[in-house]
Amino acid sequence: GSGSQFTNKVTVNVDIFNTFGANTIQLAETSGFSTYLYDGVPVASVAVTLSSGDGIKTIYGRALDAAGNVSAFRQVSVQLDTVAPTVASVKIANGAASTNELSGFVQLELNAADNAGGSGVTGMKVANSAADLLLASYLPYDNFYNWNLTAPVGMGIAATKTVYVSFIDDAGNESSPFTDTIYYDSVPPTVGATPI
Known about the structure:
The chain is mostly beta strands. Helix content is about 5%, strand content about 45%. The protein has a 5-stranded mixed sheet with strand order 1-7-6-3-4, with no helix packed on it. Strands 9-15-14-11-12 form a 5-stranded mixed sheet. It has a 3-stranded antiparallel sheet with strand order 8-10-13, with no helix packed on it. The protein is rod-shaped, with a radius of gyration of 27 Å.
């Protein structure tokens, strides 16, 4: 059959169906079958290594019987994308230098793009530390996300807070972390008075 999907793996598994009467299966990246990715006995699935370079890869398959009769070829396409999203930005509270929101909730503004010809940014994970980012689960990608800054927050707290975000594309390539910091300050000013 034909179809298209994304992968970040150079070696992919090709499932082979309906090989009745065939004694040889051939897979190639050209419909002329000049060079084979696989040339052997029928199997249910075979791992093949795609040619180098990102982009759409088409795998053609055909079957041969013992008399040398050749079937019409079938094809399937996959888009190879081995590059993670690299263009991204993270802004806390619209890029403000500080916040005094007692709840600790802020809005993140997130912008990410995949490489030209890439599979597209589909997910993000957000955390308050690099270690927590490694353990975080992916969420659907969105340009705006409400986030709770790391504890402690509330009245009388003053500290620099950092948010870590990484992005993933449809092929499964994960970006390096992107960060932004904001100064959390909910300490009221003090006024000194001298008796007269």
